[in-house]
Amino acid sequence: MTKHAAFCLAGLILAAPVLAATATTQLIDGRKVELVAMKNPAAQATVVFENGSRATVDKWDKVIDGIAPQASVFAYNRPGYGKSADTATPRDGLTIVEELRRNLLHEGLAPPYILVGHSLGGLYMQLFAKRHPEEVAGIVLVDALYPRVIKKQEDFPLLTRAGEWLFFSSMVRKEISGIYETGEQVMAQGDIDSKPMVRLVNQPKGATAVPVDFGVVNSDPQTIAFVRALYPHAKTVVVDSDHQMQSASPEVVVQAIKDVMEAGQHQ
After folding, report:
1. For a disulfide at 182, which of 61, 79, 93, 132, Cβ 3.0-4.6 Å?
2. Which residues contact 140 (CB under 8 A, 6 or more apart)?
3. pLDDT band for position 266 (50/70/90)?
4. Of all residues in the chain, what percent carry a pLDDT higher than 70?
5. Residue 3 pLDDT exceeds 60
6. φ/ψ of residue 74, rounded to 5
C-alpha cells in the first residue's frame, strides 16, 4: 500500500506532458478542448478515459487501439494540458466531472459509459461513477489514487510545496490542492459495489524501483485498512509494470476494459 501510493505520487512529479498527435480541438462552453472522440455505431458503451496528473491523451494511444474495434472512445486533456485552454473554474473533482460530462454531451456520446482513470484521473472516475451511477456501466482504475491517501495540501512538507511552485503549472497546482477535497467528495456519495470494476495495481519488482512519496502520503494502518476495504466486489489485478501502466503495459489495461465490458453485458 505504501509503495503503491508512493509510486502514484512519483508519477505526479515525473510524468512528462506530450501533445497527443491524433487529437483534435473543439470549442466547448467557450473554451478550447483537445480531445479524441471515436464513434462506433455497433458499440454498446462508450469507453471514457481520464488522465493522471500532468499526463495527456497520447498516453492512451495503445489502449485505444486495442479497444476501438468494439467500443466508442472518448479521451481528452483537462484545462491547461496539451492544447486545452486554461480555466478559472475550481479544480475539485465535482467541477471536473461535470466538465467531462458536458464534453461528452457536446461530442454526442451518450451513456452508458465505461470509465477508465489513471492515477489522479482514477479518483475523478470514482467520483463520476458515484455521482452518476445511472450513466456508468463499469469502471477500470489504473494505478489509481483513492480517498484519504494524500494529505491535505497544508500538511505537505515545506519543500514539497515549494517544489510545486517551481515545477508545476497553475492548473496542476490547483488539481493537487483539490485532491483531498475530491476524496471527501467521493466518500460523500453512495456506493458503486454493483458496478463491474477492475483495480489495476502497479507493484514493480525491479531492484531499481524506489518509492518516493515527497511526504504527502498517509501510510498509517488506519488509512491502509480503509483503502483496502473500498470496493469489496472489485477485481484487483497486481501488475509488475510502471506507474504509467497504460504506456508500459497497455495489454493489461485493454484486457481489464474488455473484462468490464463483458461483465456489464451479463448484468
Report:
1. 93
2. 114, 115, 116, 117, 197, 198, 200, 253, 256, 257, 260
3. low
4. 88
5. no
6. -140, 130
